[in-house]
Amino acid sequence: MLRTGQFYLLWTLFFFGTFAGLLIIGQMAKIGEEQAAMNNAYLLVLTYALFNFLGRISWGSISDYLGRSKTLFVMFLIQAIVFFAFRFMTNPGSLMIGKSLVGFTFGGMLSLFPAFTADFYGLKNLGVNYGIMITAWGVGGVLGPLFGGLARDVTGGYEWSFFMSALLSVAGAALSLRISKPHIPEEAVVGEPATEQVGER
């Protein structure tokens, strides 16, 4: 897996999605309080959690129908639109809708990247392969909230966080169109016919 360029592309996309999502999610309650004057900003957290769950069980099925790459493109595109619009969501209703969409697409990434890993590199070493792939989540999970907090401290607002998340989502949408299945020798995938190693269905 580490010898293929597709791994590094997928890792980068996973990092972009995690960084962009957690950059906003890490500031969720504060954004509700400061931007939409919400006294019950914890509802944003509950709403996000619900739609994150729904996304995890929905996007896998969607990708089985559309194909992995097209599904990832749609997810990044939705996120980009929402992140660009976040600065205008200054009332609780619109902010709840925005957070719902972020939670729904963000949760879906955790079902999509394991599927990518299995499709591209087989089941033989899926445990260790995805263990390496998900390091992108760890790096993005550290740097995203850190950048969000620093941007808030320096600028006094969240506009730079929204812009950075939107920019990474646009980049993710563009890069997702370049994903292609790597050539893996058939003998590297134990017990699986080559016809089952198809990334797009």
What does this protein look like?
- It is a single chain.
- The chain is mainly alpha-helical and 201 residues long.
- The protein has a single domain (5-180), classed as MFS general substrate transporter like domains (Growth Hormone, Chain: A, Up-down Bundle).
- Helices cover 74% and strands 0% of the residues.
- It has eight helices and no strands.
- The protein has helices at residues 5-25, 28-35, 42-66, 68-85, 92-121, 126-133, 135-155, 159-176.
- The longest helix has 30 residues, at 92-121.
Strands, helices and their partners?
Layout: H1 5-25, H2 28-35, H3 42-66, H4 68-85, H5 92-121, H6 126-133, H7 135-155, H8 159-176
Helix pairs in contact: 1-5, 1-7, 1-8, 3-4, 3-5, 4-5, 4-8, 5-6
Alpha carbon gyration radius? 18 Å
How many runs of DSSP E, i.e. beta strands? 0
Q: Please, what is the CATH homologous superfamily?
A: MFS general substrate transporter like domains
The major pleated sheet works out as: none
First-to-last CA distance: 21 Å
Poorly predicted runs of 5 or more residues: 193-201
Architecture (CATH level 2) name = Up-down Bundle
**CATH class category label:** Mainly Alpha
**Order of H and E elements:** HHHHHHHH
Shape: elongated
Strand content: under 5%
Structural class: mainly alpha
How many structural domains does the protein architecture include? 1
What is the CATH T-level topology?
Growth Hormone, Chain: A
- The number of helical elements comes to 8
Which percent range fits the helix content? Answer: over 70%
